Amino acid sequence: MLMQTMEERTAHERVDELKEQMNQRFDLVDARFDLVDKRFDDVSAEFRRIDSRFERVEVEIRSLRGEMKSETGGLRGEIGELRASVESMQRNMLYGFMTLVGIIAGFQVF
Predict the structure, then answer these.
(1) How far apart are CA 20 and CA 13, in angstroms?
(2) What is the spatial distance between Cα 71 and Cα 77, in angstroms, rounded to a whole number?
(3) How does pLDDT run across 19-60, given as a tens digit for each residue?
């Protein structure tokens, strides 16, 4: 009974129809893979852009480190000069204080 209501198709026609459906599905899968490939290409391009930015940042950091080293050397020299100046000032103040004590002690003797 069921066979009477169904279209009668030859085996060749059914195989052709199945082949067509398979081709359509493969075309859909190919289209999806193309989208995925494009997305990977976009992501790869973004990573390349980020990598180039990191390389520029690394170059800047190296440059800044070099500048800091040279400036630090200059500051160390200035700190050494200031120490010498402070020590000299301390000696002068101590000498002045001792002189003042001597003067005051001399006045007390008279």
Answers:
(1) 11
(2) 10
(3) 999 999 999 999 999 999 999 999 999 999 999 999 999 999
Distances (CA, A) of 72 to 77, 82, 93, 108: 9, 15, 31, 53
| AA identity, residue 5 | T
DSSP-derived letter for residue 8 is: P
Residue 77 in tokens: 């020299």
The three-state DSSP-derived secondary structure of 55-103 is HHHHHHHHHHHHHHHHHHHHHHHHHHHHHHHHHHHHHHHHHHHHHHHHH
pTM greater than 0.70 (yes/no): no
